[in-house]
Amino acid sequence: MSSMTGKNIKISVFGQSHSQGIGIVIDGLPAGFEIDTDSLLSFMARRAPGQSKLTTTRTEADIPEIISGIADNKTCGAPLCAVIRNTNTRSKDYSNLKDCPRPSHADYAASVRYKGFNDIAGGGHFSGRLTAPLCFAGGVCIQILKSMNIEVKAHLYSVHGVFDTPFDPVNITDVNIGEKAFPVIDDEAGEKMQEEILKAKRSADSVGGIIECAVTGIEAGFGSPMFDGVENIIAKNIFGVPAVKGIEFGNGFKCASLFGSENNDPYTVRDGKIITETNNSGGITGGITTGMPIVFRVAMKPTPSIGQKQKSVSISEKCNQELIIHGRHDPCVAVRAVPAIEAVTAISILDIISEDYR
Amino acid sequence: MSSMTGKNIKISVFGQSHSQGIGIVIDGLPAGFEIDTDSLLSFMARRAPGQSKLTTTRTEADIPEIISGIADNKTCGAPLCAVIRNTNTRSKDYSNLKDCPRPSHADYAASVRYKGFNDIAGGGHFSGRLTAPLCFAGGVCIQILKSMNIEVKAHLYSVHGVFDTPFDPVNITDVNIGEKAFPVIDDEAGEKMQEEILKAKRSADSVGGIIECAVTGIEAGFGSPMFDGVENIIAKNIFGVPAVKGIEFGNGFKCASLFGSENNDPYTVRDGKIITETNNSGGITGGITTGMPIVFRVAMKPTPSIGQKQKSVSISEKCNQELIIHGRHDPCVAVRAVPAIEAVTAISILDIISEDYR
Amino acid sequence: MSSMTGKNIKISVFGQSHSQGIGIVIDGLPAGFEIDTDSLLSFMARRAPGQSKLTTTRTEADIPEIISGIADNKTCGAPLCAVIRNTNTRSKDYSNLKDCPRPSHADYAASVRYKGFNDIAGGGHFSGRLTAPLCFAGGVCIQILKSMNIEVKAHLYSVHGVFDTPFDPVNITDVNIGEKAFPVIDDEAGEKMQEEILKAKRSADSVGGIIECAVTGIEAGFGSPMFDGVENIIAKNIFGVPAVKGIEFGNGFKCASLFGSENNDPYTVRDGKIITETNNSGGITGGITTGMPIVFRVAMKPTPSIGQKQKSVSISEKCNQELIIHGRHDPCVAVRAVPAIEAVTAISILDIISEDYR
Amino acid sequence: MSSMTGKNIKISVFGQSHSQGIGIVIDGLPAGFEIDTDSLLSFMARRAPGQSKLTTTRTEADIPEIISGIADNKTCGAPLCAVIRNTNTRSKDYSNLKDCPRPSHADYAASVRYKGFNDIAGGGHFSGRLTAPLCFAGGVCIQILKSMNIEVKAHLYSVHGVFDTPFDPVNITDVNIGEKAFPVIDDEAGEKMQEEILKAKRSADSVGGIIECAVTGIEAGFGSPMFDGVENIIAKNIFGVPAVKGIEFGNGFKCASLFGSENNDPYTVRDGKIITETNNSGGITGGITTGMPIVFRVAMKPTPSIGQKQKSVSISEKCNQELIIHGRHDPCVAVRAVPAIEAVTAISILDIISEDYR
Questions:
Q1: How far apart are CA B143 and CA A335, in angstroms?
Q2: What is the pLDDT of residue B122?
């Protein structure tokens, strides 16, 4: 396994849902940056559970303790490590899952991979809870990027067939989605999404979603062709967020039904700066930023933990058996994943721009 | 930049469209494998240009010369390097593009990134021609995988709104798509796709497409959570193929409109083996293979080089100007990208299964 | 910076001498291994300070808290993280060093590197204290290696011109050096070394040393040519231990005064196994193990912190000034570095043998 | 295996002594640099064989063909690849070695590692001949460094007990060692070294040596603590040169016999710049450059190929047998390794300073 990633900004994620704690090490941050703790905690609070009837009833304070990396209130160049304690855990909810894998969870694959020694409680290292340390690291990176006038923002673009207004990829205005209780641009669409989620919850079911994310303020010329491109790096890292099943940049899959003449972004000069009139490329060509906003969408599957009776097997006895999952789960993981996608994007972007492009 | 990727099987791609040659180094291959040259050359021929009216009229033999890595006709553990000469180049077609970037090509981004020193001829290192060495390396990996009963196959799933029959993700039968002149499952759909492509060509335009790829015969338990998962690695590498703008595994973006009860894959036992009845996960949960086929789709944008007059700018003078692109181009890059997607997938899968999962 | 290393077994070290804590993440350990905690703590105790008059008077319990990576008392495949709290810190001892760098410490170089924001207290992230988490991770790896009959042991080979008996590189017998209070083979030589150290201490000075380390029980065929050889990996990691200034394998620098006929290791067959009669290669040829013990020596500089008045400068005022270092320091870092060298070696060896050499 | 290394400047080395060719890919070079071909060829000529009675009689022109990475005579940001053809090969000299490993060569270890499929001819991928592509890449890096006023130079410091004058680590003057036929500072010492080498050659034997290398003009503040330090990176790469068995920085192993008060480098201000009066640290503390010259020494073993009868075994029959090595070999590999050490150092230094240390 490797729960480490990054080239210039490296992270190392650790923890299981029910271990002593979860946390992250970030290596390579610039020295001398003063983290705004209040802002960081409110960013992290956006993904914290227990905030509404839309999310799991497991509540945890999720206050990160900074173990290292700070001196005189500023980053000191040494690796920044934060640990978040796991407190509200109820491992007995999971005792039966060791042999009876939950459909579309990692249980079975992990059991083969780790010869049955994987930690099943709460999903172990595969738990969505691991997005908390990602949000810590991403929250720090967001602040550093902001000091360079680069902003990362995401919204819930779709839930169970209901769609939010997409970002205007050319002019992304600051709609402060992050400050909303429900992270959408169009609040009416948001209402309908919430209805869909609650409907699913009432029938002991769950729903999937799409998150759209944008990075503004990034200059042209960052990234590289082939395997170190902006798309490669973001994609590699975003698939580290549990439940992600797809990613597309700019027009993405829609490209398949377009003519080149429709999809190409014409160049023009505005205020002495070269821009494109449209941004179907999502701000990236040849793996390199064009100076237009980076725009991409992330597909998230419905929470695999549902309350309905499901078909499963006994791993040890190789026979079929039925499964009812207990425990507390979000009916739509995409909701709380919005800040996690922002976080991973910020980590990726800071990694990319910390390359020496002399 | 980095045109290197991989952990256990590492590749290093080099070359520009109009340099002396293009090529690849593959490091980490098992020793003692005898490459079937005929089979490799016919695999590479699938992406070679000049085969039909659907592709560019640039013709090149594209015969790779193996520089190293072989002894007594078998891989010897040393890095395998192959060089393909560039012969049929017409660089004067590109002389005007240095200052006038082609819309949705890498020209402008690369010009900023490399301070104007990037090789513009034929797209330089950003050219789709770089998929030739990828096909060399991938062709070798495909043979090695086949010796382990793992197969990689892809088809053109969609072109400009016309759709092929998708793979049945549970039972992918050997339809020998690779041997067809036009790589689709449903030949009637293939006819319509070709009509769309020719229609675009006639109007000096291009069209996008979607490629679907599957890996069969791979056991459960390969891959890792978070950043070294099967999805992360495949995604990172697939975005190395020019023109790719999206990737989705299993149900992918369709997840967003499904209930968990619809998307979850129920486990069952068949012939003493644990399988899933459906394969909406695309063979991967938690980054780890489930033992079901790996299935994913790749979105490819329309060829940005089109014959129509387009809006561009002068980089040096920061003013608008019109552009007409000359040169020879595929009206639909997705067609010849099918073997490239297979190649990069095979390289990725061999890298993944060459991990020590003790 | 990167305080991360490793390919298959990856570590991420964090912490400063006076931060909340120090610690390490280990990613890639085999699942299902039960750590012997008592044995681990006694291994870690070998490097802990405050044990004798030879070491610093700073005393810390140095009990690691395992945050993650364990389930049902066994490694579960998830990253193993341990945190050690810093308790006995006296940062005021260091207040004057921010502007007045200690000779041959990292102070000045780090001040330039981190623009003055580096944590100076106790040496910050450059402190020898960071060997504690290395010993945690190495202690775990030593146990895993032992279960495969691979042993790592080191002794203090030289201190200030006094030499211990070297390992017999062909037959390294288990002399249990690790259980000795002073880690030498020849206790008489050890007495003399201790006298040298105390003599230095009395004159507010320090002395350097050489540590010899051996790995037994490792089969032939591990490692790779060029940059992933056993020597490359061990060297890269050993230079991560503070104060290391050199490393040599087998005959090392002595090679320069030998004939090939003296230095070559003749092959012979013993008990049906191919071995070498001598082991001047230190168990490695072409970067690959020969099946003979791996033997190398590590040069460690004298503790740069000495009590004598020294010449330094004011960084801010660019003028000369005298420096007297307060604080508590080992008069010979090599003594407590012995387990740290074993630890880093064990981490490196486990990384190397966790490669898939099919 | 991995014959790839580097983070910002990455190289990928390929080829065997008797394959079609050998070569290297360099990825990450700054764009817009014009390579001085004459200067590069004369640098490469310094390691080429057949120049004197001190070296192997195998002669090869060793002219690199640049396959890619150049446009309009300047680096264009794309990977630079060069191939050198192997022409003067006599593989029959090696036919008996497949089963009868040469003492202290990689033959036996490689045979186990690669299950007998390794290329034995001329040492295969383990051959000293692989330093030719390293010299190509290093020669380019040396030119780029020179344009930043950073210089790399090495001399033969010791051969079979005869010592050259060491570099003055504080003031390394340009003695143009590289232009000498025999690369020493003190030509009288050089004469004696040559006598030693010829004496060894006459008795069908070989001798080892030590190379001292220095990097001047490098500012303070490059490098990082722990595993990405200047020492770690140089050491990791230098052990990639065949026959290297040790490396030491600054006082290195001599540290062990010194007091801290002798080994510490006092700071002082000269011409408004902070320097050290001595440079026992070899220009590096805490893994980071101090602004003083980087100085290190590399131990090289005697050429293992000697003309005398030696003890070996039959790998297949597991019995003892005698071996006489034919073929053409240098009696002292250290001589021609001098430019190779410079080359690998230059690659490492350019990699280090290409980090973004904002």
A1: 44
A2: 85
Q: Which two structure tokens, joined as six digits, stand for B313?
A: 């700018």
Q: Is C8 on the interface with B (CB under 8 A)?
A: yes
B129 to chain D, any CB pair closer than 8 A? The answer is no
ipTM of the complex model: 0.96
Residues 6+ apart with CB under 8 A from D90: D327
pLDDT, averaged across chain C: 93
Interface check B117 vs A, CB under 8 A: no
Spatial CA neighbour of D141 closest among D319, D298, D347, D323? D347
CA torsion angle B270 B273 B277 B282 (round to 10)? -150
A152 DSSP β-pair partners? A215
Residue-wise pLDDT tens digits, C208-253 = 999 999 999 999 999 999 999 999 999 999 999 999 999 999 999 9
AA letter at A145: L
Nearest residue in A to B319, CA atom: A269
Locate D154 and state its tokens.
Answer: 């090495």
Contact (Cβ atoms closer than 8 angstroms) between residue A214 and residue A169: yes
Question: Under an 8 A CB cutoff, do D255 and C299 touch?
Answer: yes
Handedness of CA D51, D56, D57, D59 (dihedral sign): negative
**Joined tokens for residue A92:** 């007995």
Question: Greater confidence, B165 or B92?
Answer: B165
Q: Rounded to two decimals, what is the model's pTM?
A: 0.97
B289-303 pLDDT per residue, tens: 999 999 999 999 999
Pairing mode, if any, of strands B294-300 and B310-314? unpaired
For B2-37, letters b (16+ CB in 10 Å) and e give: bbbbbbbbbbbbbbbbbbbbbbbbbbbbbbbbebee
All structural domains of chain B: 4-353 (3.60.150.10)
- The sign one gets for the Cα dihedral C319, C325, C327, C331 is positive
| Spatial distance between the Cα atoms of C325 and C103, rounded to a whole number of angstroms | 10
Of the residues B9, B25, B358, the best mutation for testing chain C's interface (the one with the most C CB atoms within 10 Å of its CB) is B358
Q: Which residues contact C147 (CB under 8 A, 6 or more apart)?
A: C33
Closest CA to C276 of D184, D102, B320: D102
For residue range A164-173, list pLDDT tens digits in order.
999 999 999 8
Q: Are strands A310-314 and A319-323 parallel, antiparallel or unpaired?
A: antiparallel
Instruction: Express each pLDDT in A249-278 by its tens digit.
Output: 999 999 999 999 999 999 999 999 999 999
C265, C279 contact by CB (below 8 A): yes
Q: Please tell me the distance from the alpha carbon of residue B131 to that of residue B350, in angstroms, as a whole number.
A: 18
Residue-level pLDDT at B104: 96
Contact residues on chain D for A30, CB-CB shorter than 8 A: 358
Does residue D154 come out as left (phi exceeding 0), alpha (psi in the -120 to 50 range) or beta?
Answer: beta
Q: What is the pLDDT of residue A126?
A: 93
Q: Which of A246, A290, A308 sits opposite B108 (nearest CB)?
A: A290
Q: Which other chains touch chain B, taking contact as 3+ CB pairs less than 8 Å apart?
A: A, C, D
User: d(Cα D16, Cα C221) in Å, to the nearest integer?
Assistant: 19
For residue C37, what are the contacts with CB-CB under 8 A and spacing of at least 6? none
How buried is A165 (Cβ within 10 angstroms: 0-12 exposed, 13-18 middle, 19+ buried)?
A: middle
- Show residues of chain B in contact with C78, CB under 8 Å: 225
Amino acid at B226: M
Residue type, B144: I
Report how far apart, in Å, the C-alpha atoms of A322 and of each of A107, A206, A313, B260, B273 are.
Answer: 15, 19, 7, 17, 17
Residues β-bridged to residue A314: A319
Residue C177's SS3 state is helix
Q: What is the mean pLDDT of chain A?
A: 93
Interface test with chain C among D17, D267, D316, by most C beta carbons within 10 Å:
D267
User: Residue with structure tokens 């090529």?
Assistant: B23
